């Protein structure tokens, strides 16, 4: 007797046309399913985008999410620390200004051991006066703390550690109370000269030849 | 006047002076720009005209980008009025670029002064003083005067043009949407500038495309700035009958003016009644005087100074002087002149400047306590003078002031609000306004007031008061910008007109006497106080001019003959009354005429809206007009 039960363990033993068609139909159907699903997804995403144009915030959220994912991916390897490289031009320029106004390089490069304090004092006036002029002309300086040096000051929680440095017996938690040893200096404005293309900043003082 | 609705006139700070919108006011200008074209520094100030109806005026001073040394460009409020004629091998390639050009035609500003301090043969300075120096052709290349032949020379006119060009380019690079030639521009000149110098200044402005610029006298600009800074309060500080003496001591010149305060229809009116001579004496002379004093002291100790050391000494004397003036507790300031080589410590020269020296040289030397009857000493000039500027021979500024006040005693005779007592020997100012960097030193300002008040007290007149609150360095530029605002019908306007009356010399018809130069008469062609935009003709005085041949007239001005009407002939005058200016010249072109033909003409004088004097020859026959040129200089 022939019973028509479904034997799941049955594998096609022959590679005939029927089976090929069957497999093809299955593949086609599943492909259709995938395409359908994808198109639904895409159209949904588009809808969301359209909404996003009207309200800007959602976009920001999406971007944030992406960033987070990326972070998670990179989390295991520590980010390489990029230190800012100081450009030599501005430093050279400052040296040039100090030399021009105050003979700064001349003074520093001179061997002062052979001179008397009186002689050095005379030269120091040139340097002091010139440096004062150069610094005042190109920078605006202000004290970080306006309190009198030597007075007691209290630093609240979350004070900026870059502008105020703690020293000595650093224990406990903020607010910290201590003595202002140095009022600090900060540059509030920089007015360095602009440079033309032909300017060689490395020449802090050109050699001088009188004809 | 249709531009100004009646109700606006009524409430516009209730000024009586109704200012007509001048032709030179640019339609739709966004800014009022004031340019102080100084002897040693130029300053540009500007204010937005957009909110003019709010009665708000807030002038700003433009930071002027300029080269300070080769390769460095910095912004400064002042542009030093110097030009440097660099040698082609002197500066590296691309080291003279400016934000608006890779290679400027001329090096001007701080870099010129810096390079020139070491190479003076290539430095052009004081171009402005040359502009009003009689006997010099201002368009001839004469500067630098002591340059060797191979150095390219420029004319004082070219130098002035170059400074204006730099200011214009700087403005353009900062205000690309508001070209300077479309703004209201006011350029200041010394009150003592003669017609030719004014004409040259306007021409220089025209050469850089600023044909719309108008002129304003510096002391007036200083007073405008004071009025503007007082925000309407000036009426409390000035009263009817006041005579305001404006004393302007700048780097190279001293300028004096008198402005009277009168009343008309219940409102205060200001009238500039007199201006002084152009005195080439200023702060630079003071620094030099100190340097020579210190030099003498060093030479006594057997130390000889080289020229570059004197230069450096002048610089440090200037700084030391300022310190002594600001810190009254200091008795002396050490002066050091560093060696030029890289060894700083060994070769440095040390000396000091004491308070006693500053007092003796500056206070007693420049502002001596003199009687009001004293006059400046003038040595007769030696016949052969090197081509240089006619610097004042007497450094006593107080003596120049005494001479000015005595000379101008009658300046206010026609003003009924000003009453000078009968026994006065000089004009009594009641208020003083200072201008110029020199008077920042309280010691000098106080001494000047002390001397003036001592003269007043001798004649039982009340002491003059100082009008406070002036910005001594920037006032002229700020006041010039404010003047642009005044010309729009806001605020009070200082009336003035020409500061002198003008005459041409005419040979009187008399039989020739061997050995005698024919007598000459002075024919008044423009009266004192001629207002801008007016003209005067002399139809009765005819001259026959030959076509194609230049005809020259001697030209005179007077700062004191106020009553002379046009057409009056003077047979006799004292040296003090009339100053001879450069000759004027007229050449009738040949257009449509026969060479050699004689054309009868009469003269016509006009004061333009710009503020310059214009002389014309008018043909009787066909009303043809020819301009008479001023700038016929050069001592040919």
UniProtKB/TrEMBL annotation, chain A:
Pfam family, one: DUF2760
Domain of life assignment: Bacteria
Transmembrane segments: 17-42
InterPro entries in alphabetical order: DUF2760
Stretches assigned to the DUF2760 domain: 88-210
Keywords noted in UniProt: Membrane, Transmembrane, Transmembrane helix
Stated name of the protein: Uncharacterized protein DUF2760
Automatic annotation (TrEMBL), chain B:
PANTHER family, A to Z: CELL SHAPE-DETERMINING PROTEIN MREB
CDD domains, per the entry: ASKHA_NBD_HSP70 (cd10170)
Pfam families, per the entry: HSP70 (PF00012)
UniProt record similarity statement: Belongs to the heat shock protein 70 family.
Entry protein name: Molecular chaperone DnaK (HSP70)
Biological source species: Methylobacter tundripaludum
Keywords, alphabetical: ATP-binding, Nucleotide-binding
InterPro entries: ATPase_NBD, Heat_shock_70_CS, Hsp_70_fam
Lineage: Bacteria, Pseudomonadati, Pseudomonadota, Gammaproteobacteria, Methylococcales
Single Gene Ontology MF annotation: ATP binding
